[in-house]
Every structure is written in structure tokens, then in C-alpha cells.
Design goal:
The complex is a heterodimer of chains A (about 425) and B (about 300). Chain A has helices at about 1-25, 40-50, 65-75, 90-95, 105-110, 115-120, 150-155, 160, 170-175, 200-210, 230-240, 255-260, 275-280, 315-330, 335-340, 350, 355-360, 360-370, 380-395, 400-420, and strands at about 25-30, 55-60, 85, 130, 130-135, 135-140, 145-150, 180, 185-190, 190, 215-220, 225, 265-270, 285-290, 305-310. With about 425 residues, chain A is an alpha+beta fold. Chain B folds into 2 domains: about 1-40, no CATH class; about 65-295, MetI-like (MetI-like fold, Orthogonal Bundle). Chain B has 14 helices and 2 strands, in the order H-E-E-H-H-H-H-H-H-H-H-H-H-H-H-H. The chains are: A alpha+beta (about 425), B mainly alpha (about 300).
């Protein structure tokens, strides 16, 4: 009899535990690896789980270079995460494949879109499709130009006084900062672009083209506008930089690497997150705005990109709600993420935080951010970027700009036509 | 009892062998056969990983031949195969003939000469990337005579494919030298002695004795070097600043599979390129087997 009672108690306990488990919702959360952010993530998740005992968070950090591929293969296998992040340049493919769930304001505990936007000072343009929002920004990043004060001083210049205001003035200043050998080969560059970072050729020429009132790709019509006067001017500038002026090019060490090694006087591919790296490298820096064209029609700095927290539309509705709840909880820790991991989001908690006020470059970045624009978002981004990089190489090899831009335009259009035809939803 | 035991023995004979090989068969089926057949099936589909595959028949193959990237990768691969087989064949034979001679310090020199074969290709690529810096060591060594201080070994679209071939050949020649040496060692010494007694000089012995005896080794070296060259990937991925760059001048078929599959997420096209590569390698192998049989 005693055995029977024990058995019944055991079965009852097991059944109860199973029932309790069935009530708990598990949210699978994937984020790309950014080492200083990981301990903060863990702390936020622990707090969330404590506040929401019915939700368990399964948190995975995936190395940044593998992140996008792993996300896609996981979605393909039907095992994609419920909550994940990625950049504005890559989100269109998820939207087109109907992976993104539109924001659930109820689960986020916001009355409506206006209430959500009121918390921020921008950053949502990269995640709006067909008028709806599909994510919350966790990092809004704009690049700016940094000058190495010592190298400028060595050349008899002061970045605060002598920094070129226009692209037209930049080559002359860069020349003064450049050291050359007897053949005119730069042995120490004065200024150079980040030629070897692929995304640079999405952001940099597009910034120049934006300033002239155009774009490399029209996101609305899905047509390439690379073979236009503003485009020709931007790419001609880059071709002259490497060929005519011999101020730099993709054959040299990456500009970020050389800048941090104290071998490059100025470059424009660091965000606010680059400052700790400069501190570690003992670089005495000055942050400066990207030059504008003398006849610019738009006063924008370098293009922006953002990371968003998004929810998988293929997850069960209850899981989606829990995921949005977690997204809200996570993004409400923006000040902590800025202080500990350098991830800037333009929202009041951040701009009023002690860390923001202690960062001398932060107001500058925010001011530039408000004027900057997102680069176009297209399906097949990697292919489009690759076509532009092929064009970059041809320009550096000295090919005629008209021919190169014509082919680039044709290739980009072919990619976009193909990818849009395949996409199940028209973008925007 | 005896009948039962003989039944067990029969079971042994019939099934034990199969049971023992079953794990390997299953492993082969799961990790070789299935991916191969799945890849073949994928080549007939349009698949982007995010939405279900769509059957498109032979469209991927038809589109490939009009695709600029494929055309360029195909030509680049053929150039690389030529550069990575003919010079390798000749230079590795010459090296083997040198090291087949008896001279002081031969074994030490041979070991040193063999060293480039040992590190992985990625390590070789990283080291050569430093050496081939436009203002680096190799530029100083070669350009110094003419006062040239910058050579774009890897950044010039015309020069980069040949820089890669040179690095590849430098790393692989010692390996094929060993194969030639094995072939030379297999030639009975009496042949050479008899020829020498008959008054044949070194050149005549090489031409009339060694080379005819090395025919099957020659086919083996040609087959291995060309298959290896068709499959090239790591060098083109690591050595240039952009994989396959500049301006796709070092884009080869192996790299195109990666680009289509995991950069563009065009799995169907990636699989179609793999099938074309497979067919090319198969054709070369069959041709060389035919030569081998004749040799």
C-alpha cells in the first residue's frame, strides 16, 4: 500500500511539473557577438526572467562573421530564433521572406506607434516597410572622421582649424599629411578611405551622392541610379583619389588598422564605438564631420546603419508576444548598453546618461546622426554590393568611368530584378 | 544441436560481414552519397534558404553560361589550371632529376626544399600576403634594380592571377618532386648502366631511358596536379584583399560556389556550378586514365 501511495505521489509530481513546464514559454534569442555586450545581455536576461517567471530565455551569441549565414540556415531548417538582431542593410531579405513580425504594440506595452517613437530621436527608418515598423533599434551607428592630432601637428596642421570642409579641399590637405618616397609612392598616408571594408562602398559613395540629392539605388522604384551625374562625380572622386592623386587605395593596409597603429593621419570609418579602441592604441584624436561637396544640396554626414531587435513571424503567437516583451525589456536598458558596450541609440535615457555626458564626442555624433540618411535597403544586398565592389576595382585599375558605371548599373539592375521577382512581397 | 550450430554459422557467413561494414556504409551514405545527390537535386531548383525550393529544371545550367561571373570564373579556373599544371609538371621533374643525383648535403637540401608542402594553404597565403605587399619584401627584391618601390602583386587585376599561380606552384612543386623521385627510384639501375656501357651520355639516358620509364608517373603527376588545380579555393579566398579580387580576376569556380551559396544565397546556382566542376574534373580524370592505360 505504501509503495502504491509513493508511486501515486511520484506520478502526480511528474505530471504537475510537466504541466508547469507546459505553461512556461521559451524564447530563443540570437544576437551577433560583440564581446563587451555579452555580460550585459546576460544580466538583462536574468532580470527579465526574474520579473517574468513564465518566460524562459534561451540565449545564443553567434560570431559576427558567421551570424547572417547561420540565421538563414536556421530559418531554412525551421529552427530560426524567435527574437534576433541584424543590421538595416540585411533586414529586407527577412521582410521579403515574411520572416519579420510587425511590431506588437500591445506586447511592447506602448499605446501605438507614436508612443514608441516618442521614446526615440530617430533610428527607425531602416526598419519601416510598407508603412509598418518591424523592429526596435539596439544600435544606431554613424561613422565620422577622426584625425590623429600628433600626425597633423607633425605636418604643421591643426585638425580643428585645417580640417577640410569640402571634398574638393580634402586632396590638398591629405597631400600635406602624406609622406612619399622618391617615386611618389606614399610611405605614410595622410588620409584614406576604408577601401577594404566592403560596406564602405555602400556607405561612402552613397553619402557623397546623397549630398548631391541622389542615391545609388532607388529603394522605391528598385532601379539602380549609378549611371547618373551625382554618381559619376562621387566615383570619379574615388578613382582620382587612388589614381590621379595617388593618396591611397585598396592595395594598402586597411585604413582603420593603420589609423590605430598611428600610421594614418585621418580616416572616416569609425563610429562612436571606435573611441575605446583609440584610447587603447594611445591615439590622441579629434573627431570631425565628413566633408560635404562645395555645391551640396543636402547637409548629410556619412550614411547610417542600425541594428534592430526583430521577432520571427513563424514563431507561435504566444512566443511572439513573449519575444516582444523581452525586446522591450532589453531595449529599455539602452543606457546600460551604451555605457558598457558603446552601443548608441538616440533615446532620452541614453542622451541623459552620465556616460553620454562624459563622452565628449557623443553630442557631435548625435548632431551628425540627425542629418544623416540610411543607405538604401534592397533584397540581394550582398550581390548588389559585390557588383559595386567589382566596379570599385575596375576604377582603381584605371578603366573608363563611363564604361564602369554603365556595367555596374546594368549588373545592379539585373540583381534587383531577379531578387525582387523572387521575393514574395514587394518591398515598400 | 549440430543443425542449429550450422544455422548460426550460415548466419555468420551471410550477415556478419554486412553488419561489420554497415556503419561505414551508413556513414558514407549519410555524409557522401546523400549530400552529393541532394546537391544534384538542388542544381535543378531555385532556393534561397528562406523560402521553399522551386523546381526550375535545367534553367540554372542554361543561365550559367550567360552569367558573366560564371564565364569569368570558368576562364580564370582554366588559366589557373594551366599555370598550376604545366610549369609544375616540368619544374617538379627538373627538381627530381637534380635531387636524384648524389651530391653532398642532398638530403638536407631536399628536406628544406620540401618544407613549403608542410604548412596548410591558409598559412602559406597569409605569409605570402605579407611578402607580396605592394611595398614589401618581394618588391624590394625585384623592383629595387629598376628603382621601382611599388608593385601591386595582388592589387593589379592583370598581375594578381599570376602571383597566385606562382605562390601555388612554389608550394606544390616539392610534393610532385617526391612522386617523380619515387618514379625515378623504380627504374632498374641496370638500364642506365647498360646504356652507359653502350656510350650513352646523361642527356641520352634521360631521353631514352628515364623519360619513357616515367610515363605512368607523368600521367599521375598531370592528373593529380590538374584535379588539385580545378579544386583550388583557399589561396584565392585568403591571399587577395577581397576573395577572388581584384575585379574578380582571381575568382575561380570553387570560390563561385561559396559566393553563390553562402554570400548570395542562390543555392540552386551554387549547386549547378558544383555539378559543372564535377563534370570538368571527371572529364579530365577520364582523359588521363585513358592516357595512363596507353602509357
Amino acid at each position: 500500500m505504501r509503495i502504491l501511495i509513493c508511486l501515486a505521489t511520484f506520478i502526480g509530481l511528474v505530471a504537475w511539473t510537466g504541466f508547469a513546464d507546459a505553461e512556461q514559454i521559451t524564447v530563443r534569442m540570437w544576437l551577433h557577438e560583440h564581446p563587451p555586450r555579452v555580460p550585459i545581455d546576460k544580466s538583462i536576461i536574468a532580470q527579465f526572467e526574474k520579473a517574468n517567471p513564465d518566460i524562459k530565455v534561451q540565449y545564443d551569441v553567434i560570431s559576427a562573421p558567421e551570424y547572417s549565414t547561420k540565421l538563414l540556415t536556421a530559418f531554412a531548417a525551421g529552427s530560426g530564433p524567435d527574437l534576433f538582431n541584424n543590421t538595416s542593410t540585411l533586414v529586407t531579405q527577412y521582410f521579403a521572406a515574411r520572416i519579420l513580425a510587425p511590431i506588437d504594440y500591445d506586447a511592447l506595452a506602448f499605446a501605438n506607434e507614436a508612443a514608441l517613437l516618442a521614446k526615440f530621436q530617430g533610428g527607425f527608418d531602416g526598419i519601416r516597410f510598407q508603412g509598418k515598423l518591424y523592429g526596435i533599434p539596439t544600435e544606431v551607428s554613424n561613422w565620422a572622421c577622426f584625425a590623429n592630432n600628433s600626425l597633423w601637428k607633425e605636418a604643421g596642421l591643426d585638425p580643428k582649424k585645417d580640417w577640410p570642409k569640402t571634398w574638393e579641399d580634402l586632396p590638398a590637405i591629405a597631400e600635406k599629411l602624406t609622406k612619399r618616397d622618391q617615386n611618389g609612392v606614399p610611405v605614410r598616408r595622410g588620409f584614406d578611405f576604408a577601401w577594404t571594408i566592403p560596406g564602405t562602398f555602400w556607405f561612402t559613395p552613397n553619402t557623397m551622392i546623397h549630398q548631391l540629392g541622389s542615391n545609388m539605388v532607388n529603394e522605391d522604384t528598385y532601379k539602380a541610379t549609378l549611371d547618373t551625374a551625382p554618381s559619376r562625380r562621387a566615383f570619379q572622386y574615388l578613382q582620382d583619389w587612388a589614381g590621379k592623386y595617388r593618396l591611397g587605395g585598396p592595395q594598402y593596409t586597411a585604413s582603420r588598422t593603420d589609423f590605430l597603429a598611428g600610421k594614418l593621419a585621418a580616416e572616416c570609418s569609425f563610429g562612436i564605438w571606435g573611441i575605446p579602441q583609440m584610447r587603447t592604441a594611445n591615439i590622441d584624436w579629434t573627431v570631425m564631420p565628413a566633408p560635404r561637396w562645395a555645391d551640396a544640396t543636402s547637409d548629410n554626414g556619412l550614411d547610417i546603419y542600425a541594428y534592430y531587435m526583430m521577432v520571427n513571424a513563424r514563431a507561435a503567437p504566444t512566443v511572439q508576444k513573449a519575444a516582444w516583451k523581452l525586446a522591450r525589456f532589453y531595449t529599455d536598458h539602452a543606457a546600460e548598453l551604451f555605457e558598457g558596450a558603446g552601443l548608441f541609440v538616440p533615446r532620452t535615457e541614453v542622451t541623459e546618461s552620465a556616460a553620454y555626458k562624459a563622452n565628449s564626442a557623443a553630442p557631435f555624433f548625435l548632431a551628425e546622426l540627425k542629418k544623416a540618411k540610411f543607405s538604401p535597403r534592397v533584397v540581394g544586398y550582398s550581390q548588389v554590393l559585390d557588383a559595386i565592389l567589382r566596379g570599385r576595382d575596375k576604377l582603381v585599375q584605371g578603366e573608363k568611368i563611363e564604361d564602369v558605371l554603365l556595367i555596374m548599373n546594368e549588373e545592379v539592375n539585373a540583381v534587383m530584378n531577379r531578387e525582387r521577382a523572387r521575393a514574395t512581397t514587394l518591398v515598400k | 544441436m549440430i543443425a542449429r550450430r550450422s544455422g548460426l554459422v550460415r548466419f555468420h557467413h551471410k550477415w556478419w560481414g554486412l553488419i561489420f561494414v554497415l556503419p561505414v556504409v551508413l556513414f558514407f551514405a549519410a555524409f557522401n552519397l546523400f549530400p552529393t545527390l541532394f546537391g544534384l537535386w538542388l542544381s535543378f531548383t531555385d532556393y534561397d534558404l528562406l523560402s521553399p525550393p522551386i523546381w526550375v529544371g535545367l534553367d540554372n545550367f542554361a543561365n550559367l553560361f550567360a552569367d558573366r561571373l560564371f564565364q569569368q570564373a570558368f576562364v580564370n579556373t582554366l588559366v589557373f589550371v594551366l599555370g598550376a599544371t604545366l610549369p609544375v609538371w616540368v619544374l617538379s621533374l627538373l627538381a627530381a632529376l637534380v635531387f636524384d643525383q648524389a651530391f653532398r648535403g642532398r638530403d638536407v637540401l631536399k628536406a628544406v626544399f620540401f618544407l613549403p608542402v608542410l604548412p596548410p594553404v591558409v598559412v602559406i597565403a597569409v605569409v605570402w600576403r605579407l611578402l607580396l605587399h605592394p611595398n614589401g619584401v618581394l618588391t624590394s627584391l625585384t623592383g629595387g634594380w629598376w628603382g621601382i618601390t611599388e608593385i601591386r602583386w595582388l592589387a593589379d587585376a592583370a598581375l594578381a592571377p599570376f602571383s597566385l599561380i606562382a605562390v601555388h606552384d612554389w608550394a606544390i612543386i616539392p610534393f610532385f618532386m617526391i612522386i617523380w623521385l619515387a618514379g625515378l627510384a623504380a627504374i632498374p639501375p641496370e638500364f642506365r648502366e647498360a646504356a652507359a656501357i653502350d656510350g650513352a651520355g646523361a642527356a641520352a639516358i634521360l631521353w631514352h631511358i628515364d623519360l619513357p620509364q616515367l610515363r605512368s608517373t607523368a600521367v599521375l603527376v598531370a592528373a593529380l596536379s590538374s584535379i588539385n588545380a580545378f579544386q583550388t579555393f583557399a589561396l584565392q579566398y585568403v591571399l587577395p584583399s577581397d576573395p577572388g579580387g581584384p575585379a574578380n580576376s582571381t575568382l575561380v569556380l570553387g570560390l563561385l560556389v561559396l559566393k553563390y551559396g553562402f554570400q548570395y544565397f542562390r543555392m540552386g546556382d551554387a549547386a549547378a556550378v558544383s555539378v559543372v566542376m564535377f563534370a570538368l574534373i571527371m572529364a579530365v580524370t577520364v582523359l588521363q586514365l585513358w592516357f595512363n592505360r596507353r602509357a
